[in-house]
Amino acid sequence: MTPGPARRLRRWVAGAAALLGLVALAGGPRAGAQEDAPRVLVSRVADAITPVVSDHLRDGVARAERDGYDAFVVELDTPGGLDTSMREIVQRFLGADVPVIVYVSPRGARAASAGAVITFAAHVAAMAPGTNIGAATPVSLEGGEVSGKVVNDAAAYVEAVAEVRGRNPDFAVDTVRDGRSAGVEEAVEIGAVDLEARSLAELLELVDGDPVELASGAVERLRTAGAAVDRYELGLFREILQFLADPNVIFLLLSLGTLGLIYELATPGVGFGGVTGVILLVLALFGLSVLPVRAVGVVFLVLAAALFVAEVVAPGFAGFAAGGAALLVVSALFLFEETPGLSVSLAMVLPVAIVVGGAVVVAGRLALRSRRAPPSSGSDALRGRVAVVRRDDRAGAQVFLDGAWWKVRAEGAAGEPEDGRRIRVVGVDGLVLLVEPAPDEATAAGTPPPSRDHGGAHE
C-alpha cells in the first residue's frame, strides 16, 4: 500500500472512532437515566381476602422482585377475609426483598379485620382521607364470640407483626381484643400507620427517600418520586375465581344447578335443564374449592336435594318441597365458615329457597302429568285409536293412522274387516293392527286420505 492511501485510511478510521465516541457521550447518559428512572408496580384489592387475592399479591411481590421494581404498592379496600389467606400475604410481605407499600384508598375505603393486619405488615402503611383501619376480632364458625385461646393467638400474632414494622403494638392488640378501629387522623397520630396521602402520586412523592429494611437485612431508601406506574391486575381467570369465591354466588349456583337437574328428571327430553344444571354445579364447585366448607352444611344440602327429588317422584301436598326449602336455608347457614366479608346473606337465601321450592312443586306436577298422559309414540300410542277400513285387491284391509297405512286383522278371527267399517285398534302384531268394531259413539282419530290406486284396483 502506498503512503498516500495509507494516510487516508488512517484518517477515515480516526474520524469513525471520533464519531462513535460522540454518539456514546451523547446517548450514554440519556440511556442510563432511562434505565435508572424509578418504577413501581401497583395492584388494587377491593374485595374480600381470599386464596385468589393471596395468590395474586404473592405473585405481585415476586414479579416486583424479579423485574427490579423500586416498590410494590397495594391499593387496599377490604372488609376482611380468610385468616389463612391473610397469613400467607403477611408472610410474603415480611419476607419481601422489595419495598411493599399498602395504601388504604380511595376515600371512604377501609382496611378491616384481615385487611388491617395486612396493612401493618407493609414496609410503608398509608391511608387516604376518610378511610379507617382496625376491627380485627376473630369470629367463630357461627359468627359469635370465640374462645380466649383463639383471641390470644390472634392478638399475639398481630402484635408481633406491628412490632416488626415499628408500629403501635397496643393499637394492633386492641383491634383484636376489643374490635378497635381508627380513622386516618387517629391512626397516623398513634403510629398505627405512617402517613396520610390524598392520592397515589402524592404518596409516592411523600415517601421518596424514606429508609426501609428488606428481608435480607439491607436498608434501602425509597426511590418513588415521579416513578412510572405499572398496573398488575388480577387477570380474567382470577377475576372469575374471585367472583365465584362469594358464598352468595356459590349458594345461588348450587340452588339453580340442583333445580336444573330436578327439572331434567321431571321432564326428560331435550336435556337443556340437565346441561344447564351441570354447568352451574361445576361453577359452584370452583367456588367451593376456594372457600373453606363445613361438612354439616354439605349434608344439609344433600338432604334438601333428596327431598326435592322425592317431591318430583311422589308429588303430593308439597310437603317434600317445603322440607327441602327449609333444609336449603339451613345448609346456607352452615355451609361456609363465618368470615368477615365472606358470609351468606339471609336476604338472598330466603327468596332463593322459596323460589326453588315452588319450582320443584311445579316440576312434580309436570312429572305427574307426564306419567298420566297417554303414550305419544310406539305401539302403545295406537291402542284405542279409531279409524275407517279401506280395502283393495292387493293390500287387503288397511287403515290410515299417523300418516301411514297399516294392515288390519280382526281380533280373535282370521278374517279382515269389511270396507268402510269403523274399527278400534286393540293390539299390534308386528306390522299388523289387531282391531275390533268401534262403538257407535266413538269418533275417528284418523282421517283417511283420498283413494289409493293399486294397479287399477279401486277402494
Task: Give a topology summary.
Elements lengths: L2 H34 L2 E7 L5 H16 L4 E6 L6 H12 L5 E5 L5 E3 L1 H7 L3 E4 L4 E3 L13 H17 L4 H9 L3 E3 H6 L5 E2 L3 H8 L3 E3 L5 E3 L6 E4 L4 H9 L2 H20 L5 H19 L4 H19 L5 H17 L10 H27 L13 E3 L1 E3 L3 E6 L2 E7 L11 E8 L2 E6 L22
Parallel strand pairs: 1-2, 1-11, 2-3, 3-5, 4-6, 5-8, 15-17
Antiparallel strand pairs: 6-7, 9-10, 12-16, 13-14, 14-15, 16-17
Any overview of this molecule?
With 459 residues, the protein is an alpha/beta fold. The chain has 3 domains: 33-237, 2-enoyl-CoA Hydratase, Chain A, domain 1; 246-372; 375-459, Nucleic acid-binding proteins (OB fold (Dihydrolipoamide Acetyltransferase, E2P), Beta Barrel), CATH 2.40.50.140. Helix content is 48%, strand content 17%. It has helices at 3-36, 51-66, 83-94, 114-120, 148-164, 169-177, 184-189, 200-207, 236-244, 247-266, 272-290, 295-313, 319-335, 346-372; strands spanning 39-45, 71-76, 100-104, 110-112, 124-127, 132-134, 181-183, 195-196, 211-213, 219-221, 228-231, 386-388, 390-392, 396-401, 404-410, 422-429, 432-437. Strands 8-5-3-2-1-11 form a 6-stranded parallel beta sheet, sandwiched between helices. The protein has a 6-stranded mixed beta sheet with strand order 12-16-17-15-14-13, with no helix packed on it. Helix 10 packs antiparallel against helix 11 (272-290). It is elongated, with a radius of gyration of 39 Å.
What are its keywords?
459 residues; alpha/beta; 2-enoyl-CoA Hydratase, Chain A, domain 1; 3 domains; 14 helices; 48% helix; disordered C terminus
Q: How far is it from the N-terminal to the C-terminal residue, by CA?
A: 122 Å
Estimated share of beta-strand residues:
15-25%
Largest sheet strand order: 8-5-3-2-1-11
Largest sheet, strands/sense/barrel: 6 strands, parallel
Percentage of residues assigned to helices: 40-55%
Estimate nothing, just give the exact number of structural domains.
3
Shape: elongated
Provide a count of the helices: 14
Oligomer: single chain
Do you know the CATH topology of the largest domain? 2-enoyl-CoA Hydratase, Chain A, domain 1
- CATH class category of the largest domain: Alpha Beta
Poorly predicted segments: 23-34, 441-447, 450-459
Average pLDDT confidence is 81
- Nearest-angstrom radius of gyration? 39 Å
Protein structure class: alpha/beta
- According to DSSP, the number of beta strands is 17
For CATH, the homologous superfamily of the largest domain is named as 2-enoyl-CoA Hydratase, Chain A, domain 1
CATH architectural type of the largest domain: Alpha-Beta Complex
